[in-house]
Design goal:
Helix content is 11%, strand content 42%. It is mostly beta strands and 223 residues long. The protein has a single domain (15-217), classed as Jelly Rolls (Sandwich). The radius of gyration is 26 Å and the shape is globular.
């Protein structure tokens, strides 16, 4: 009977640990950074402060915060408001769910030993789902500097981005092509000679020589 009771306690403890909440902790902050938790009042953050589920963190002008979400690190940029919806370890996976109301974050998603990561950041227009990676995200635009991030808009259209790629959507348009986004950033016209093997066809009777010809028309009637 005692053995049965002891075994039951062990099983209950194991089940509790399997679904245990991992800690969200404030590593550091600069400027004006506040949180809104269960007390329903904004309070300044302090290093080492533990954030409960449902907590919203807000940064002011020239203010930042660095959060530890289990093994992952999240930098909250200035003028950002972010809510912690879920942070739990269950059945070998750490599930993180954040809601980015406004602003921008930079995340380094790291897997703890023996644990996989299910890390999602949602905004009013899109969702960024990552697998062991690093990225910047403002709810519309996404830039990946490590790993792979899947970007999904409100209509369920998705696109994956690799290191060095970026893209985004207004929530309804298909997430932009990473290569086209790069070309747009550098001001490259893919239809100029030598880009994409395309040939630029000049208008009739105009020869492009690399020089500029100025034609002056004089109205002699006024003389």
């Amino acid at each position: 009977m005692k053995k049965t009771g002891a075994l039951l306690v062990v099983l209950l403890l194991a089940a509790a640990l399997a679904g245990a909440q991992t800690q969200a902790r404030v590593r550091s902050s600069t400027g004006k950074v506040e949180i809104l938790g269960a007390q329903q009042a904004w309070v300044p953050v302090k290093p080492g402060m533990i954030l409960g589920l449902g907590t919203t963190i807000s940064t002011g002008f020239n203010s930042t915060a660095v959060l530890e979400l289990g093994a992952s690190v999240l930098q909250v940029k200035p003028l950002t408001r972010l809510r912690l919806n879920e942070l739990v370890a269950r059945e070998g996976t750490v599930t993180t769910d954040l809601f980015l109301q406004v602003g921008k974050i930079r995340a380094e998603v790291k897997s703890a030993e023996g644990l996989a990561q299910d890390f999602k950041v949602k905004s009013p227009v899109s969702t960024a789902a990552v697998r062991g990676t690093g990225f910047e995200y403002d709810g519309y635009e996404l830039y990946v500097f490590e790993g792979t991030v899947t970007y999904t808009n409100q209509t369920g259209q998705s696109r994956s981005y690799s290191p060095g790629e970026q893209g985004g959507s207004d929530g309804y348009d298909t997430p932009s092509d990473a290569e086209q986004e790069l070309l747009d950033d550098f001001g490259v016209n893919p239809y100029t000679p030598g880009a994409g093997n395309q040939v630029l066809v000049s208008p009739p009777h105009i020869t492009r020589t690399g020089t500029i010809t100025v034609i002056l028309q004089l109205d002699l009637r006024a003389q």
